[in-house]
Design brief:
Helix content is about 10%, strand content about 35%. The chain is mostly beta strands and about 180 residues long.
Length: about 180
């Protein structure tokens, strides 16, 4: 199993790194829309790579009703499929609620956030939740909204580059094909 596939499986199931998992999402239904600029295929590495780290792909796609799919796949590995939706938090912040397999013996939901450093560089963090109470989604939403920027609440997860550069990132004078 490649390092990315191993990391995806471990972080998504909350078995390592103290990932905060919950029985329910931050909101019961989508209350926000993910930035369309994050949709598409990305090549990603762990944000904390090891000497044997390998890149893998993450494909984000929109589904009906403001829901999304995320497919994670290490090179030569079977793809892992996840469903997610976005929740609006305090101060216009958006978090992704990721449904993981309850059959793995962990709580069903993990929380992640993203930022676009440039149109072709995606950073994904997972909720570690240091100091956050294990409470139902709505109460977690309130607590998270107040502590979003505090150290230990989120941890870097993946650093990704777009497989096809966006139009904004193409050098001036580049020939259109």
């Amino acid at each position: 199993m490649t390092n990315l596939a191993r990391l995806a499986a471990v972080a998504a199931t909350g078995l390592l790194l103290g990932c905060y998992n919950a029985d329910e999402p931050l909101t019961t239904k989508p209350t926000a829309t993910l930035d369309p600029a994050v949709m598409g295929e990305w090549r990603c590495l762990s944000a904390a790579p090891q000497s044997d780290s390998q890149a893998g792909s993450v494909v984000l796609a929109a589904l009906p009703d403001r829901r999304y799919s995320a497919t994670l796949q290490g090179d030569e590995e079977k793809p892992e499929q996840y469903e997610l939706f976005a929740s609006q938090l305090a101060r216009s912040r958006i978090a992704a609620n990721v449904r993981i397999r309850a059959s793995l013996g962990v709580k069903e939901w993990a929380v992640m956030r993203y930022s676009l450093a440039t149109p072709d560089l995606l950073l994904i963090d997972y909720l570690e939740g240091a100091g956050l109470p294990q409470v139902p989604g709505a109460k977690l939403n309130e607590a998270l909204g107040r502590r979003w920027d505090e150290a230990g609440v989120f941890k870097p997860y993946l650093v990704c580059v777009r497989t096809k550069p966006s139009e904004e990132e193409k050098p001036r004078g580049a020939v259109q094909q």
